[in-house]
Design goal:
mainly beta; single chain; four-stranded antiparallel sheet; Methylamine Dehydrogenase, Chain H; about 300 residues
Length: about 300
Amino acid sequence: MFLALAGCGRPHPRRLGEAFLTDQDGNAVTVVDLVHRHVLATIPVGGKPAGIAMSRDGSRAYVTSPSTQYVSIIDTASRKVVRTMPAPGGPLGIAVAPDGKRVFVADWYASRVLELNPETGATSRILAVGQSPSGMAVTPDGRSLVVADRLSNAISLVDLRQGREVARIAVGKHPFGVTLDTSGRFAYVANVESNSLSIVDLAARRKVADIGVGSHPYAVGLANDRAFTTDELGSTVTAVDLSSRKVLTHISVGDYPEGIGLDPVTGLVVVANWFSDTASLIDPKSLRVVGTIPAGSSPRAFGTFLR
């Protein structure tokens, strides 16, 4: 199983082994070359950027700025902001539909998700969900949106054809990040206050497992039939075997790790360390840190950030 990336419907290009890291205190996105392990560029964004979603073809990165209430669209080739879109409320989590025609923004301060048109920047519709929505993911078929509702202790399953929530599934306490497997059947949810990883069968609309992980997990990555949670207060990444559903180990990384994903070029799991200003590189087979890269100021990279 691998991390499923939401994005546009064009064919997958050759991946470049780059990470686009939202630097909250730096008001920028730092682009990192994961192959040669150095910073390539710094893109000014503003508004304390936090969430990010990469299009499937890697041509666009969508970044939320909570303090200025907008979404920036970055052309990843030129490494420039080409448009900003209003996102009133508390824009945090963000996801892109597989056809690239819809961008979904979670309003942290309300029980809603904004659906934006990236061509016009307009809000197409508002989707009602649970309280304090945070992380989101779109199923590979583009039919459903999965939303982690932090204060509802649940995830919302939204039917995008109907434009409404069709199920609310209880998970752990204060879910934050959610990741789907490549089939779109299973959702993996990081529960901050219960220190757990929930596995949800979306087809059956029920939670099938709760696994204890490290302290205050915020996000989940998938690689090699393993799940990896970023444990912010533990400064660790917990590796979980998905066959046995047992913890394999806790891997020490930087302080307050948050964003996480599998880079298909290097085959490494990339972790943004919010309070260390670094990115850690983990070998998903040996479960060891094999590299650390400077990564701007307060990198969060909450969402899909690899190109």
